[in-house]
Amino acid sequence: MKEIKNERSREAQGRRAGFVSQAIALVLDGAWILLEYIVVLAIFAVLRGLFTSASFHLPKPDQWVSVVALFVIGVATLQAAWSGAGRTPGMGLIGLRVVAADGTRLGARRAFWRAVLVLGTLGLLVVTSLFSRTNRSLYDKWCGSSVIYEWRPGNSVAS
Amino acid sequence: MLAQVPEAGGDAATPPGPLSLLPGAVVGLAIEVERRASAAVVAVSERTAELADHVPVPGVVHRALRPVEDAMWRLNEVARREQQANQQQAAAFIPVIVNQVTENVLAQLDFVRIVEQVPLDDIVSAIDIEEIVARVDLGGVIRESTMSLTTETVDALRTQGIALDDVASKIIDRLLFRGRARDVTIGVEPREAGA
User: Fold this and answer.
1) How far apart are CA B9 and CA B14, in angstroms?
2) A residues 61-100 near B, CB within 8 Å?
3) CB A156, CB A14: distance < 8 Å
4) Residue A143 has what pLDDT?
5) Cα–Cα distance for residue pair B127/B115, rounded to 1 Å
6) Is the confidence metric ipTM above 0.90 for this complex?
7) Residue in B151, B162, B189 nearest the CB of A8
8) pTM for this one?
């Protein structure tokens, strides 16, 4: 595993991440969820082309269908990521990880409710981490979680 | 030149005459005399020293010999210092000599001619390029260097993210008149006054 060269960044590993990193990771995760939705639509279009005489084109579902589908895909993605490796694709790129408040792995139930809250508020409440003395957003306070810097898997306080 | 003794089977037609042997005989005699004289001096001095150790020397003789002994000690010291100086000069001189000799030897060498004599074509034809390429894991080298470059780029961006986090939190803390730094250590839960 490659060593982190910057001393300041090395010391930050395992500590709670700030607002900017969390916000960028959320934006990247939003793009990732959107990409997943487009892939689902493309698969649907291919299957429809195989079993019907319709030509291949991406379906244009109603707005409420898209919202519900995005919400379901998003919750499934975030819940699986946070309760598993602790990081979504966006967090992985920025070098963040979601853990329980004591640094251990976040449970499946807490990860689920955190995903629901994040998607239900479009992630906007992450701004509350900016005003917290401990860099914890309202999502973290409600779900007993923390977002920490962890550039390399296993180099934080608790894995 | 001293006359040489003719070798067996050599040219026996011109044997050296007695007159031509005279210089060599004189030198040989001188060497023999010097060798025997020095052997005699050493023998006499050793026996004299042994005798002198056993013979009691009166105080008068001691006092008379004192200046002689002092003079000998002084001369010995002079000789010792001179020897030391000579050794130091020689030690300093040897590297200069070696460098000078090496430079002169190198100046005499014709490197172009030497290189021209090296059979480069034979050496190159003996090298199996395909075998060498097959041994080198080019894919691995490229993959490793690419991964290293990617990791360093991503780390640089992450470092900027951490710096921006610090700047943003410091601005807000200053606006909220917070004196203490944020506690971002995991597992610590202080009372949130300003959140």
Assistant:
1) 13
2) 93-95, 99
3) yes
4) 93
5) 19
6) no
7) B162
8) 0.59
